[in-house]
Amino acid sequence: xxxxxxxxxxxxxxxxxxxxxxxxxxxxxxxxxxxxxxxxxxxxxxxxxxxxxxxxxxxxxxxxxxxxxxxxxxxxxxxxxxxxxxxxxxxxxxxxxxxxxxxxxxxxxxxxxxxxxxxxxxxxxxxxxxxxxxxxxxxxxxxxxxxxxxxxxxxxxxxxxxxxxxxxxxxxxxxxxxxxxxxxxxxxxxxxxxxxxxxxxxxxxxxxxxxxxxxxxxxxxxxxxxxxxxxxxxxxxxxxxxxxxxxxxxxxxxxxxxxxxxxxxxxxxxxxxxxxxxxxxxxxxxxxxxxx
Length: 292
Known about the structure:
- 8% of the residues lie in helices and 34% in strands.
- By secondary structure, it is mainly beta.
- The protein has 2 domains: 8-142, Thrombin, subunit H (Beta Barrel); 157-289, tm1086 (SG structure) domain (tm1086 (SG structure) fold).
- The strands form 4 sheets. Strands 1-5-8-7-6-9 form a 6-stranded antiparallel β-barrel. Strands 10, 13, 15, 16, 17 and 18 form a 6-stranded mixed beta sheet that branches.
- A hairpin with a 5-residue loop joins strand 16 and strand 17 (241-254).
- The longest helix is centred in the N-terminal third of the chain and has 8 residues, at 82-89.
- The two termini are 18 Å apart.
């Protein structure tokens, strides 16, 4: 589908991050939704066997991020934060180039964002992952902030996605709305962590996977990293809220969690407070199928 966008007015800007070492609480323990203490791998580092297209659930893990997790450790000046800029300006589908270490010059793509820890997530091919180290620096040519679909704005807002990637997604025009192919339809009633944020231009919004009937009804055990999903009755215009009739579309950015209120994260790519987004089921609606 041909989209009319304002790409000629968007700024292409460098943002930098370095691969962050995996982090855990000093005890290693997390408390699961049943009150039991458990120890799992968690956020950060280089995930050698978890990438976009792999399952988002079923791992012996808590919030593990696919591929490479990057952070900008530059000093905050007043209210201005280099890591804040990295997390807002980097968009899913942006090209990322390794600028230090043994894999210098190799490239990959941004695949999502994770709030709280404030990481940007990047996918590289397995042979590249083997040559990376925590601390290696990665340059992202950020492009996409301010993107508008001129035929649908302001009823549909777009965020966190490279315009070129957006044109590759399963989209169809539908009168005054836009039909979007998704792998899953998720009700807002089972969404958790992320509620209360004032912006969806960084971070993510977690799907709670604790209720067996909801798991079965919405096929949550089939979720894959990179899946494009629609959250029904969710508005992300100014942070994530429940709003009847609204629809938010996003991509699964990180793995499941055992902690109450948490689960696979969804990085928002578009939202409509007035329900102008019409999701339809598309089994191939996964980021892996649209990256070069």
